[in-house]
Amino acid sequence: MHKVLVIVPFPMSDENLSKRQAQLEAVKLGPGIRFDFKAVRIAPVNYVSQQDALLADVGILEAGLSAQEEGYDAVCIDTVSDSGMAALRSVLSIPVIGAGRHAMLAAQMLGDRFSILSMWSRWDPLYKKTLADLGLAHKCASMRSPEMEPNNQKLLKGREDTVFPALHRVAMQCIEEDGADVIILGSTTMHETHAYLAERLPVPVINPGPLSYRLAETALRLRLSHSKSAYPAPLAPRPDMFRAMGEHVAARS
């Protein structure tokens, strides 16, 4: 039995964590693999500044440090920002899959130019960073949103009647005005919109979270992981320091 750890980028209740786990319903995975969802202890309120990005990196690194020791075979990061991915790849040899970059790379398999559909434009710097890292800025037709502030705990519950049509309207602008032939959902917090949009849009819609689970399964079956030449191990690992940070935050909350 393969075990995959999914790191959720915000502290949350069991009820809200179950809304993240619901992403598994969107993909049929083979037998012999289990996904466990774990919320971080260190996190910003949202991802809208450089300080937030730093906190997110630290929190996700701290949450995944012991994954290999705990018997996990792969790690998925449940945020399109890919926070902590590079750091975890430097300390783990098991596959570490980031939802954001893999969604963009998958979009290149399905079409030529893609648009990133998000809830609000304050997330745009996250996408621009990944696009720059991958050298894919010229393949991004647009980044659009209906400017609706997200709720990273309750997701879209109770707002479906307003959010779903608004996202559809903006997605059609991406297709008709910007020339996108693939749409990427800009956050795993938007996964509840995928079925609605996929049924109504004339182009493929990538749901980053479930895609990352499938890629983790594929990496395990093919016995592939990231290159340690690209992600070298630290000369002086400090897992104790990061764990102490997590314990301190947990004790105060």
UniProtKB/TrEMBL annotation:
InterPro entries: Asp/Glu/hydantoin_racemase, Asp/Glu_race, Hydantoin_racemase-like, Iso_Racemase_Enz_sf. Gene3D superfamilies: 3.40.50.12500. One of its GO terms (molecular function) is amino-acid racemase activity. Pfam families: Asp_Glu_race (PF01177). Signal peptide: none annotated. Belongs to the HyuE racemase family. PANTHER family: PROTEIN DCG1. This is Hydrogenase expression protein HupH. The lineage of its organism: Bacteria, Pseudomonadati, Pseudomonadota, Betaproteobacteria, Burkholderiales.
